[in-house]
């Protein structure tokens, strides 16, 4: 069966590059000013989040951040869309904030669920997708997941459910940065080729470069009418900051003033 | 109780927001619900964590999902999904746990639910329903169906004494008035104890209250119960649940807060598996002193 086209926005490459640069800088500043870590997995997700929200998602589409630790990148993305104010953003990770280290329970209309414990987002997305299907409502449900998250059994339960119920509305996007909490994914719990496993469960899979907006856009712009489609996006943890790239410790470390200055310099040159 | 619930759910399924998810259980009981709800009856497979997350996702878009399994499979296995996905967001997801307490008897410990409401009542917005009799089930289910937030329905076995005129369902009900101690019993345990108490001579009959909704809040304790406690001087809490997180603790706490502690307080509750052996529900109740004879022996002791 052939894939069907979904209308999305085309983008001027230079304007898109500038957008990504601007949001990356804002993300770095947010984390620097708050003195918090988690930057590695935020930087690996940022191009996916921006392309998805700026070019792919329409008014009927929904989003769930299953890798809740990329909350900073989601907040910065919503800020870039004007759906989260600067006043709100400067309170990131401070006392009396809505914007904690993981997506909050309530108060932000674009955030449907508090996440942060891994292995919840895909099941929640399946529920949102099934609700749309039963009601005959348009739109898709995009779920951004980490690769380490696939250690969680609940994800495999959700995968069986998606395939069995042919929930083509639900699109898991996997940020495959190769690193998890305390080691490389290949060293901790090697899943081999995740794309092959997803295919084995009955999903249609696109493998893409998760830092190439055009590839992200193309992969998300087609919907296979017969099977749910997953996007396996190869990414770099700490993408765009030389001393962070591929380094597990940037799941945890805050930036020093010198590191922040260097990160800003590199982000400007990217 | 399960069959009565199924009949009630068939009626509730007329609501377009009704949806029912089962963790692959319900043979010889839920077929009418399946037939009535059509596409809104979903066998989610033996995958309770996903089932609860799916229900939360559906509730977020306006559905009012019921999720069903044997009690521990749904409240214990999927506890974090109930906590994060349902309760944090105050979503109307209604968890049905079949086989409260030792109801699955000789099926063994994995199938028993001895700490279910204690575990769940620590979660925000959670409301627990423990119908005591089959006749309570439609009223309890109707109340749940109107709820704005999450609920847990603990099902058991109806043991209503024959010919007893049961008062209409309410969270607190006085079933019997006597000159003996005051019993507060949770759920279906009340039936057997009531049956035995009715056979006792009037001067030593206990006063029996049955409690069917939790949390137990200090300011919701009926004034008549407070009077019974003061008059009798001996309050006995009885539940097929462990002491930790149980109604005995909640009741003692509530009465202490109100400054109305009884002269004497006893608590009979599930003890787990004192002998290490398995048996019927009544076998386990007996081991814990929860059977009618043990309760009457306790209250008739001076």
Write the H/E string of chain A, N to C.
EHHEHHHEHEEEHHEHEEH
Could you state the order of secondary-structure elements of chain B as H and E?
A: HEHEHEHHEHEHEEEHEEHEHEHH
Gross morphology of chain B: globular
Class inferred from helices and paired strands of chain A: alpha/beta
Major beta sheet, strand line-up of chain B = 2-1-3-4-6-5-10
In terms of quaternary structure, the protein is heterodimer
- Total beta strands of chain A: 9
Shape annotation of chain A: globular
Strand count of chain B: 12
Number of domains of chain A: 1
> What's the CATH architecture of the largest domain in chain B?
3-Layer(aba) Sandwich
Named at the architecture level, the CATH assignment of chain A is 3-Layer(aba) Sandwich
N-end to C-end Cα span of chain B: 37 Å
Explain the overall architecture.
The complex is a heterodimer of chains A (270) and B (302). Chain A has 270 residues and is an alpha/beta fold. Chain A contains ten helices and nine strands. Chain A has a five-stranded parallel beta sheet with strand order 2-3-4-9-7, sandwiched between helices. A two-stranded antiparallel ribbon of chain A has the order 1-8. In chain A, strands 5-6 form a two-stranded antiparallel ribbon. In chain A, helix 1 (13-34) packs across helix 3 and helix 1 packs antiparallel against helix 10 (257-269). Chain A starts with a strand and ends with a helix. By secondary structure, chain B is α/β, with parallel strands linked by helices. Chain B has helices at residues 2-12, 31-37, 48-60, 71-75, 79-87, 116-120, 136-145, 189-198, 223-232, 247-258, 281-287, 292-300, and strands at residues 18-22, 41-43, 64-70, 94-98, 127-129, 151-155, 172-176, 182-186, 207-211, 213-214, 234-242, 264-270. In chain B, strand 11, helix 10 (247-258) and strand 12 (264-270) form a beta-alpha-beta unit. Classes of the chains: A alpha/beta (270), B alpha/beta (302). The interface between A and B is medium-sized, with 30 and 27 residues.
């Amino acid at each position: 069966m052939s894939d069907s086209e979904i209308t999305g926005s085309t983008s001027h490459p230079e304007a898109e590059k500038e957008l990504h640069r601007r949001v990356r800088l804002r993300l770095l500043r947010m984390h620097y000013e708050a003195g918090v870590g988690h930057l590695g997995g935020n930087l690996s997700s940022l191009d996916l989040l921006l392309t998805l929200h700026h070019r792919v998602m329409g008014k009927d589409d929904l989003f769930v951040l299953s890798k809740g630790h990329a909350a900073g990148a989601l907040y910065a993305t919503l800020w870039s869309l004007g759906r989260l104010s600067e006043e709100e953003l400067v309170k990131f990770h401070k006392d009396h904030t809505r914007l904690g280290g993981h997506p909050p329970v309530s108060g932000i209309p674009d955030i449907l669920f508090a996440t942060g414990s891994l292995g919840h987002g895909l099941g929640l997305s399946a529920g949102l997708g099934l609700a749309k299907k039963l009601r005959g409502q348009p739109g898709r449900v995009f779920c951004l997941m980490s690769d380490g998250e696939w250690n969680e059994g609940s994800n495999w339960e959700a995968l069986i459910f998606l395939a069995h119920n042919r929930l083509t509305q639900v699109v898991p996007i996997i940020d495959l940065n190769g690193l998890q909490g305390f080691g490389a994914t290949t060293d901790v719990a090697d899943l081999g080729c995740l794309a092959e496993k997803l295919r084995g469960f009955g999903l249609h899979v696109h493998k893409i470069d998760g830092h190439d907006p055009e590839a992200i856009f193309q992969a998300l712009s087609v919907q296979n009418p017969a099977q749910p489609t997953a996007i396996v996006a190869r990414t770099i943890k700490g993408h765009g900051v030389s001393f962070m790239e591929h380094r597990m410790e940037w799941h945890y470390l805050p930036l020093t003033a010198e590191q922040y200055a260097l990160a800003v310099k590199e982000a400007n040159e990217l | 109780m399960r069959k009565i619930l199924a009949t009630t759910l068939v009626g509730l399924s007329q609501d377009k927001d009704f949806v029912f998810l089962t963790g692959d259980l319900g043979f010889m009981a839920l077929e009418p619900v399946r037939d009535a709800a059509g596409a809104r009856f979903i066998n989610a497979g033996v995958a309770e964590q996903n089932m609860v997350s799916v229900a939360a996702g559906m509730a977020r878009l306006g559905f009012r999902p019921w999720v069903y399994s044997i009690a521990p499979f749904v409240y214990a296995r999927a506890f974090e999904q109930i906590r994060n996905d349902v309760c944090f967001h105050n979503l109307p997801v209604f968890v049905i746990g079949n086989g409260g307490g030792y109801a699955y008897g000789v099926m063994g410990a994995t199938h028993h639910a001895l700490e279910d409401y204690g575990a769940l009542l620590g979660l925000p917005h959670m409301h627990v329903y423990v119908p005591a009799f089959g006749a309570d089930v439609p009223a309890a289910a109707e109340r749940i169906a109107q709820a704005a937030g999450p609920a847990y329905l603990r099902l058991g076995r109806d043991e209503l004494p024959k010919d007893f005129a049961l008062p209409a369902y309410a969270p607190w009900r006085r079933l019997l008035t006597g000159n003996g101690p005051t019993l507060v019993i949770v759920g279906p345990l009340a039936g057997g104890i009531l049956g035995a108490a009715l056979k006792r001579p009037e001067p030593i009959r206990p006063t029996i209250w049955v409690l069917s909704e939790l949390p137990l809040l200090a300011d919701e304790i009926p004034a008549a119960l407070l009077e019974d406690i003061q008059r009798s001087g001996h309050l006995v809490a009885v539940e097929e649940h462990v002491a930790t997180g149980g109604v005995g603790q909640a009741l003692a706490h509530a009465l202490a807060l109100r400054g109305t502690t009884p002269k004497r307080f006893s608590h009979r509750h599930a003890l787990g598996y004192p002998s290490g052996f398995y048996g019927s529900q009544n076998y386990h109740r007996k081991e814990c002193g929860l059977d009618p004879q043990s309760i009457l022996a306790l209250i008739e002791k001076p």
